[in-house]
C-alpha cells in the first residue's frame, strides 16, 4: 500500500473556490450562515489525524446501489450507471484507503427519508445510499441508477438538477468534505440556486461528471467519471520552526 | 512566462442537504438495516479508559430556532490525548461519532470519554477538546468548531488565546450541569454566535 506521507500542516483552505455561506437565492442559508469571520489558525494534530476505516466494516454490496437495498434479490428501477473516479490531494497525490459515502434520490426524484414527501413513488428496490473505500491509487466506483431531478421549496419553482451527494473523509479530519456530483448536459444545473452558491464557474464545472463512454459497458451501463480533490498537507524540510523565528 | 505549478484545486463543497442522514446515519433517517455496521455510532467501546461524559446541546439558527436536520461529527483522542492509530492509543476509543438532534426536542447527546490534552506544533499543549464538524441544509460548507470544558484549565490553550473578543471564548466551552454532564449549544449566527474555525 502506498501510504501518503503525512507530514506538515494542512494547506490552508482557499475559501474563494468554495460556495459562499450566505446566499439569499438559497433561502435556508440566510439564517444558517455565520455573520462573523472564521478564526484562522494553522492546523493542529486534532485536524491532522483522522479516522481510518477497514474493508471489513463494509458489506460486499455496499457500493452497488442497484442491488444493496434488497441484498441482491431485485434490482432498482432506472438508468444503470457506473460512477467512478479517483480521490487526489491538492499536490496531485492519490488518497488511498479513504471512505466515500454517497446518497441520492431514486429514478423518480424521491429520497427514502422519512421527511421526503414528494409524490414521486418510492422504489421498493432502492435504498439510495452506498459506500466504498478507495484503493491504493485512490480509485473508487459505484454502480447505481441515475437519480431523477426533483422540485424543492425555495423560490416559487426551483428544481434540483440530477445529483449524487458525496461525502469523503481523506486521511485528516481537516480534509472532511461533502459535495455533490452533477451530470454532463443537465440543463437544470444553470437554474439551480444551490449549484449557484459556487461563484467560480470553473469550480462548478469540476462538479459536473462527464459521460465516459470508455468505461461504459455495452448493453449494461453508462459511465460517469468524477474525480475528487481534497486539501493537501505541506511537506518541507523546514517544518520545525525554532522558537522566536 | 514562468514555470507551471501542477497543483490541483480542492473540490468545491456543496450543502449536505436535508437528507444527509440517509447516507451517513441510515437508522436515524428511518432506514435501519441499510448497512450491517454504521459508521460513527459511538466514539468509544465498552471498557474505554477515562471519565465517561455526556454532552447535551442544540444547534440554533439566526432566529433562535433549534435545527432538526443538522448532522454533527465529533473527532477526539482518548483520555491520554492519543488519537486512534497512534502508539499506545486506547484501542477502545474509535474517536469518531455522528449524531443529530432529536426531532421532538431539537437536542443532541454525545456520550464519550473526556479527551486528554494534545500537543501543539509550536510546543506546549492544547487544553482537552473535541473537534466538531457541522453540516445541514443551508450550510454550504461544513462548519468546524471545538468543545472545550469548563472544569479544565484552558488558560494556556493556543487557539482560545487567539480569540480577540474574550467573551466569545465562552462559546467554545461546555458548561458543567452535573457529574459527567455538560451543556454545549452551537449558535450559527447572531447573538452569541459560536466561534467557527478555519483550520
Ligand atoms: Fe439532494
List keywords for this structure.
heterodimer, A: 245 residues, mainly beta, 5-stranded mixed β-sheet, 4-stranded mixed β-sheet, 2 helices, 12 strands, 23% strand, globular, disordered N terminus, B: 199 residues, 8-stranded mixed β-sheet, two-stranded parallel ribbon, 13 strands, 5% helix, binds fe (iii) ion
Structural class of chain A: mainly beta
Instruction: Evaluate the radius of gyration of chain A.
Output: 20 Å
Q: State the order of secondary-structure elements of chain B, H for helix, E for strand.
A: HEEEEEEEEEHEEEE
Distance between the termini of chain A: 38 Å
Shape of chain B: globular
- Rg of chain B (CA only): 18 Å
Query: What proportion of the residues of chain B is helical, as a percent range?
Result: under 10%
Tell me the structural class of chain B.
mainly beta
Count of runs of 4 or more consecutive helical residues of chain B: 2
Walk me through the structure.
Chain A has two helices and twelve strands. Chain A has helices spanning 45-48, 201-205; strands at 39-40, 80-89, 99-103, 129-133, 139-145, 150-152, 158-160, 163-168, 177-183, 208-209, 222-225, 228-230. In chain A, the strands form three sheets. Chain A has a five-stranded mixed β-sheet with strand order 4-3-8-9-10, with no helix packed on it. Chain A is globular. Chain A starts with 38 loop residues before the first strand and ends in a 15-residue tail after the last strand. Chain B is built from two helices and 13 strands; from the N terminus they run αβββββββββαββββ. Chain B has helices at 20-24, 158-161, and strands at residues 52-57, 59-60, 71-75, 96-100, 108-113, 118-119, 125-126, 130-135, 143-149, 173-178, 181-183, 186-187, 197-198. The chains are: A mainly beta (245), B mainly beta (199). Chains A and B meet through β1, α1, β3, β9 and β12 of A and α1, β6, β8, β9 and β13 of B. β1 of chain A pairs parallel with β13 of chain B, so a sheet runs across the interface.
